[in-house]
């Protein structure tokens, strides 16, 4: 089985949904997977690890419809310091909104990076409602897709996959409202306070 | 008001006119968003990182006409501009609504905008096509009423900017 390096490109890597997605992936994939966060100080170390793996999996959130800055910086570092041998690249991306298609542009950017820098692109898994799905009754849907995604990488049969909560948009709006109201309550912030129109 | 955000110095002369503001982001100290959601849940509308970004996102919210000037990388904004755009999420609420058939955040006091984007660098058609899709998608999240995109080489940025400002009747 190919050795996979899983890079967590979330700016809040230690407490991120990406961490949880990466861990589910690693549990499905087995012992040939290693997870590392991308930090400002570890670009060289991560690049050195690439020489020992045949597959690189980027796990990250959608930020402003695109790739988060810390990961963008790492991609630029790799462009300037390419590894000896280029592993195949797969991507597991999650976004806050319901529609996994909202991840499509960031995925195109990753494919473009791969083409420009001669990394073979393998599989992608695009998760919608990624902020909430793992804490919802639909967790099993995400876990099932991640398992399929892991299998596609283990077998070398690239796939383009997506998953989200099977809710109507209206239901999603209602569910996300109660999610955020509870989130605010942890800080003692009311819904009305969260709805302030003021920007400081 | 009219706002110009650039990721590089420009050699343009702006008249001392109250409602036009130019900010060269490359001269500011702006850390990247750490995704804490403090600006949605803890201190709504206010980023907890009090660096130079907090001077910029209220101006983005207030402006009705925007000019963003940025290098383009992998079909998206390069680091300097992208860092600012990520730090601008205090202008939105955590809460979600349906807009153009998709789920998007509710905006706070964000004036609808006519946006012009000048994307520079050695870009090919593939990269430009991705960038066009990105701006179209950003338009929903950034309250763009209209937008226009121009591509140019780095050495053409000042010329393009000058022409755009003439169109704004600014210089
Ligand atoms: C600065 C910022 C920008 C974001 N932009 C988007 C976006 O454009 N579309 C979207 O669906 N979610 C967006 N999100 C939500 C995240 O993608 C979502 O919360 C995700 O689950 C975070 O994953 P992580 O915990 O792995 O970082 C954004 C979040 C932040 C903090």
Which structural class matches the secondary elements of chain B?
A: alpha/beta
The shape of chain B, in one word, is globular
Question: Mean of the pLDDT scores of chain A?
Answer: 97
Termini Cα gap of chain B? 16 Å
Shape of chain A: globular
The chain pair with the largest interface is:
A-B, 49 and 52 residues
Strand order of the largest sheet of chain A: 2-1-3-4-5-6
Order of helices and strands of chain A: EHEHEHEHEHEHH
Supply the CATH superfamily name of chain B.
Flavodoxin domain
Distance between the termini of chain A: 52 Å
Structure description:
The complex is a heterodimer of chains A (200) and B (171). Chain A starts with a strand and ends in a 6-residue tail after the last helix. Chain A has helices spanning 17-29, 43-50, 69-80, 104-117, 139-155, 169-185, 191-194, and strands at 4-8, 33-37, 55-61, 88-94, 121-127, 160-163. A six-stranded parallel beta sheet of chain A has the order 2-1-3-4-5-6, sandwiched between helices. In chain A, β4 (88-94), α4 and β5 (121-127) form a beta-alpha-beta unit. In chain A, 42% of the residues lie in helices and 18% in strands. Chain A is built from seven helices and six strands; from the N terminus they run βαβαβαβαβαβαα. Chain A has 200 residues and is an alpha/beta fold. With 171 residues, chain B is of the alpha/beta class. Chain B has a single domain (2-167), classed as Rossmann fold (3-Layer(aba) Sandwich). In chain B, 30% of the residues lie in helices and 30% in strands. Chain B has helices at residues 38-41, 53-62, 79-87, 125-142, 157-167; strands at 2-6, 20-24, 65-73, 76-77, 92-99, 102-107, 113-120, 144-152. In chain B, the strands form two sheets. In chain B, strands 1, 2, 3, 4, 7 and 8 form a six-stranded mixed beta sheet that branches. In chain B, strands 5-6 form a two-stranded antiparallel sheet. In chain B, α4 links the parallel β7 and β8 (144-152). The mean pLDDT of chain B is 95. The chains are: A alpha/beta (200), B alpha/beta (171). Chains A and B meet through α3, α4 and α6 of A and α2, β4, α3, β5 and β6 of B. Flavin mononucleotide sits between chains A (10, 12, 16-18, 61-65, 94-97, 102, 130-131) and B (33, 35, 86, 89, 141).
């Amino acid at each position: 089985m190919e050795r996979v390096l899983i890079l967590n490109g979330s700016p809040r890597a230690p407490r991120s949904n990406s961490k949880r997605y990466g861990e589910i992936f690693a549990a499905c994939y087995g012992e040939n997977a290693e997870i590392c966060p991308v930090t400002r100080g570890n670009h060289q170390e991560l690049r050195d690890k690439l020489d020992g793996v045949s597959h690189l999996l980027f796990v990250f959130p959608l930020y402003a419809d695109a790739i988060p800055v810390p990961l963008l910086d790492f991609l630029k570092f790799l462009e300037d310091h390419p590894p000896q041998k280029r592993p195949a690249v797969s991507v597991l991306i999650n976004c806050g909104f319901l529609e996994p298609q909202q991840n499509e542009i960031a995925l195109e950017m990753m494919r473009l990076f791969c083409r420009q820098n001669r990394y073979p692109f393998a599989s992608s898994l695009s998760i919608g409602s990624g902020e909430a799905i793992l804490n919802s009754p639909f967790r099993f849907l995400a876990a099932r897709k991640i398992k399929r995604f892991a299998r596609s990488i283990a077998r070398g049969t690239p796939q383009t996959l997506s998953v989200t909560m099977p809710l109507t948009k209206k239901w999603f709006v209602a569910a996300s409202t109660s999610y955020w109201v509870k989130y605010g309550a942890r800080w003692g912030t009311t819904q009305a306070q969260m709805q302030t129109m003021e920007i400081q | 008001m009219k706002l110009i955000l650039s990721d590089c110095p420009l050699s343009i002369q702006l008249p001392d006119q109250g409602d036009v503001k130019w900010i060269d982001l490359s001269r500011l100290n702006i850390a990247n968003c750490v995704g804490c959601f403090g600006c949605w849940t803890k201190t709504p509308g206010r980023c907890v990182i009090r660096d130079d970004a907090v001077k910029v996102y209220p101006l983005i919210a207030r402006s009705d006409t925007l000019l963003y000037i940025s290098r383009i990388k992998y079909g998206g904004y390069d680091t300097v501009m992208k860092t600012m755009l990520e730090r601008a999420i205090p202008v939105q609420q955590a809460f979600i609504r349906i807009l153009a058939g998709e789920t998007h955040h509710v905006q706070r006091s964000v004036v609808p905008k006519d946006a012009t984007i000048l994307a520079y660098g050695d870009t090919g058609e593939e990269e430009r096509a991705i960038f066009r899709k990105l701006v179209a998608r950003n338009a929903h999240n950034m309250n763009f009423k209209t937008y226009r995109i121009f591509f140019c080489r780095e050495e053409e940025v000042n010329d393009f900017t000058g022409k755009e400002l003439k169109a704004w009747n600014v210089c």
